[in-house]
Amino acid sequence: MVVTRFAPSPTGSLHIGGVRTALYAFALARKNQGRFFLRIEDTDQNRFVLGSEAEIEKMLKAFGLHYDEKFKQSERLEKYQKYAKQLVQLGHAYYCFSTKEELEEMRNKAKEAGKNFVFRSPYRDLDVTEAEKRVAAGEPYVIRQKLPENHVVVFDDPVQGTMSFNTNDIDETVLLKSDGFPTYHLAVVIDDHEMQVSDVFRGVEWLPSLPKHVLLYKAFGWEMPVITHLPVILDPDGGKLSKRRGAVSAVGFLEEGYLPEAIINFLMLLGWSAPITYEHGEKEQEFFTLDAFVNMFSMKDLNKASPVFNRDKLLWFNQKYIQNLTADELSNKFIAWLQEYGKKDLDLLKSHIIKIGPDQLQKILLLEQTRIKMFSELPSAIAFYFEHNGGLVLNGYKQTKQMSDKVIQDFLNSYIQFLENYAHELNEMSHEIWETFVRDYAEKNELKAGSLFMLLRLAVTDSPFSPPLFEVMQILGKIEVVKRLKKYLQ
RNA sequence: GGCCCCAUCGUCUAACGGUUAGGACACAAGGUUCUCAACUUUGCGAUCGGAGUUCGAUUCUCCGUGGGGUCACCA
Question: Can you give the pLDDT at residue A394?
């Protein structure tokens, strides 16, 4: 049975790269009707961040990456200690009494001398009973892995291919810390074995410590899972994805108003391509639902090179996903976003939205649907429906600068009259009647229709950019439109 | 610096050893249009360099160059 897991540590916000790792692990498990576990790697007491675990779970849920079971390493401490001691008995580990400070000094010396430092403890060949005596006497200690000398470890990775490492280049790493907690190296091996994990996905940053893990499996006599090292996601500026250009955490993207579906779709394509063949010149499919991805997923389509995180492309995906929302979805998701991630300064907007009701909100959002790329643009885009300043210089714009104040006043007056003479609400007026009025007026007065439209736009929306004017005015209603226009009457 | 890895348009990527090296994002120009968008058409644009192997290398091998990862009692 295929068993995969996602194993983040609760040391802060979940990185977007972590979501991608989880996505692949999830996909492999689901595709093969296997199991997908969440394992919280909380063995570092110093870096523990409260609330981090809850956030990880919340994100997995938001992205649709549902897990079958959850484990926590901190709840399994005795187990690690037991295995560490077993390793000592087997001669694959030893008690070490060197202090952190001593080690640091050795490293610094080697660095100054321009030499590479590969740690070999003075205690590695100490008699075990002797060592146990010192431990029993209360001396602080760690348990270190004992490596064979000049031994080549060969490993095969589905994505990275075959790699080999020499133990002479590798430190004898700590397996059990002096606080009794295991390090990652010990804990992963034990847990993956005990959870019967068949396939591991993790970042390439683990590659250098891979031989340690291989040797541990050997020492225990356990069968190894297939381990796949995923390339890191790079920043456009080089190096790891950095915060300078926007969010890097999963929540961060949700806060900015990206849809989980869009993010996950973008993430799929970052290092994976669909096994579909196309005709020469034919457009390729790049929209995939999670289910479609799971069905198509295969290790062989994973890429080895490190991709650069292209925010423009993500934004484009998000725009497309927003465009494809139904009116209900659009308003529901926006309201959910406002409630979940809307900051304090949006409280006023929230109350406005509640006041106008869902039908009116939907009309407003529909007009914005093709105009925004993420939800965070929406509050400022729709603010004009609720607040109106009316302080613009109407002929201060490219389309209106030819118009004198007199011309503007005349038009405003007759337009207001036109509205007031209309017996019903604007909803009942046809677009044609409205547009004909403006165009006829322009013609009679030798004006450009475009400049009149712009004039109205400026007066009604406080902005030279807005959704189609007539639809906006229909939403605002006759009374409100007239009120806004009258602010410009002298 | 040691060890490990990578290399196709600016970016994500496609291409049984044989293609005018394809698609997408971005960018530019045109169309549409009451503004901004959206939509649409077209354009720009790549096999890192050098040796091999081969009738023929983007594809295989080696060497350079460039980039990345990692060298904790962190994961």
Answer: 86
A61 annotated active-site: no
User: Range(s) for CATH 1.10.1160.10 in chain A?
Assistant: 245-375
CATH 2.30.30.140 fits A76-230, yes or no: no
Enter the ipTM. 0.95
Output the distance from A129 CA to B45 C1' rounded to whole Å: 70
Low-confidence ranges of chain A (pLDDT < 70): none
The CATH number of domain A245-375 is 3.90.1640.10: no
Round to a whole number and report the distance in Å from the CA of A116 to the C1' of B1.
Answer: 7
Residue A239 CA to nucleotide B66 C1', Å?
A: 14
The pLDDT of residue A116 is: 86
Pick out the nucleotide with least CA–C1' distance to A207.
Answer: B4
Return residue ranges of chain A for CATH 3.90.800.10.
76-230
Question: Can you give the three-state secondary structure of chain A, one letter per residue?
Answer: CCEEEECCCCCCCCEHHHHHHHHHHHHHHHHCCCEEEEEECCCCCCCCCCCHHHHHHHHHHHCCCCCCEEEEHHHHHHHHHHHHHHHHHHCCEEEECCCHHHHHHHHHHHHHCCCCCCCCCCCCCCCHHHHHHHHHCCCCCEEEECCCCCCEEEEEECCCEEEEEEHHHCCCCEEECCCCCECHHHHHHHHHHHCCCCEEEEEHHHHHHHHHHHHHHHHHCCCCCEEEEECCCECCCCCECCHHHCCCEHHHHHHCCCCHHHHHHHHHCCCECCCCCCCCCCCCCCCCCHHHHHHHCCHHHECCCCCECCHHHHHHHHHHHHHCCCHHHHHHHHHHHHHHHCCHHHHHHHHHHHHHHHHHHHHHHHHHCCCCCCHHHHHHHHHHHCCCCCCCCCCCCCCCCCCCHHHHHHHHHHHHHHHHHCCCCHHHCCHHHHHHHHHHHHHHCCCCHHHHHHHHHHHHHCCCCCCCHHHHHHHHCHHHHHHHHHCCCC
CATH 1.10.10.350 domain locations along chain A: 405-486
pLDDT tens sequence across A463-488: 999 999 999 999 999 999 999 999 99
Report, in ranges, which bases of strand B sit under 7 Å from a protein C-beta: 1-8, 10-14, 19-20, 22-26, 34-39, 67-75
Fold of A405-486: Arc Repressor Mutant, subunit A (1.10.10)
| Nucleotide nearest to A9 in CA–C1' terms | B75
- The per-residue pLDDT for A255 is 95
Residue A407: predicted pLDDT? 93
Select which of A70, A100, A243, A486 is catalytic: A243
Separation in Å: B7 C1' and A274 CA? 22
Model confidence over A276-332: pLDDT tens digits?
988 888 999 999 999 999 999 999 999 999 999 999 999 999 999 999 999 999 999
pLDDT at A383: 95
